[in-house]
Every structure is written in C-alpha cells, then in structure tokens.
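Lecture notes, continued. The same structure-token format from the folding unit now serves as the input rather than the output. Read the line below as a description of shape only.
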C-alpha cells in the first residue's frame, strides 16, 4: 500500500512504498573468538610489556613473560617481542601462535631476556600432534591463561581439546622449545633456575 504525506501547501503526494530489509546473520566463520580478540589486543600491549621486561621493573611481568630476540629470515633484521613461557626442566616452552615463530628453527640462534638476564638459546619447533599435546598439557597446567590466548583450552583430564588443537595447528600454531646454547650454559642454567619458583608454587 502506498503512503500519503502532506506537504507544506496542504496537498498530498504519493510516496514510494516502504522498503523492508532483512538483516542477514553474519556467517559463523566471520566471528572472532575470544583468543583472536585477545591476540589483537596484545599488539597494543606489547610495546609496554617490552619496555617493562627490559627495565628494572621486569618483576612485574617476568614470572610469565620474557623477551625473545631473533633474526628475520627474509629481512635479516633483528626483532624483539614479548612472549609467554613455561619452564620445563632446562628448557623454555613458548606457544608459537604468531608469524614470528616462522623465523625460528634448528640452526637459527636466538636470545631471551628472562628475569632481566639475556641468554643465548637454540630453538626447536614442535609441530607433531602427539608431542604438541603432551607439551601443551604441561604448559596449560603451569599457566592456564595460555588457553585463552591460544584458543586451546584443557579438557577435564588436563589435556588440550583435540578439536581446538587441530584447528590451531591448521592456522600454523606450534610449540617452540628453547634450550640454552652451549656457549652460555652456566649463565643460562642460573637464570632458568631463578625462574623456576614461579611455576612450582
């Protein structure tokens, strides 16, 4: 039905029929989950965390965060970024959910600043499903907040949900194991030892 509307002279003019629009639901694939939202927020927090971890104020964050320095394979430039970590014996386990992890691997030296001490480390990328599952079980038990940031949460048995792990693996997620480099094993063992209480209490 057409609507009528009065103009300023008192006559009427015919208006076009109202247009009814239907709001279509957004595809499920376009919705960001909590981990994706947190990962985007971290980009704004990283410069602040980087400054704190490199200063005397590092105890505010260094129980679960450290600085990782590596060289870009394509650019050849040195880059430093804050990462979360979990101590596993004499190794550091880091969730590698970002593109930065592609710059790490056997034969590509890196450094970490953990609790204010710089240590040369040798990285290893763990991508095998069973190995990742076991390492993530340890990591999630030590630092449950990793589940929110990685999108991989633990099940009732403490192991990561298989579906979530497979989904993130498809997106390039890996676990980065960092071992102290041989040339600095003494200082590395001391620094790693000082970090241990944060994950044993």
């Amino acid at each position: 039905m057409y609507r009528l509307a009065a103009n300023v002279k008192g006559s009427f003019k015919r208006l076009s029929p109202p247009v009814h629009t239907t709001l279509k639901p957004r595809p499920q694939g376009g919705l960001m989950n909590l981990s994706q939202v947190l990962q985007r927020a971290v980009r704004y927090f990283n410069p602040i965390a980087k400054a704190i971890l490199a200063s005397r104020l590092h105890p505010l964050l260094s129980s679960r965060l450290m600085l990782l320095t590596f060289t870009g394979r394509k650019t050849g430039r040195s880059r430093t970024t804050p990462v979360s970590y979990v101590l596993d014996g004499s190794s550091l386990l880091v969730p590698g959910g970002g593109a930065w992890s592609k710059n790490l691997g056997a034969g590509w030296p890196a450094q970490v600043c953990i609790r204010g001490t710089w240590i040369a480390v040798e990285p290893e990328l763990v991508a095998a499903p069973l190995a990742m599952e076991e390492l993530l079980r340890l990591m999630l038990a030590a630092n449950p907040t990793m589940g929110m940031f990685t999108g991989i949460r633990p099940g009732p048995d403490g192991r990561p949900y298989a579906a979530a792990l497979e989904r993130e693996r498809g997106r390039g997620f890996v676990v980065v194991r960092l071992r102290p480099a041989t040339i600095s094993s003494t200082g590395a063992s001391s620094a790693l030892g000082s970090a241990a209480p944060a994950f044993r209490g």
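Point for the exam: The first helix runs from residue 34 to 53.
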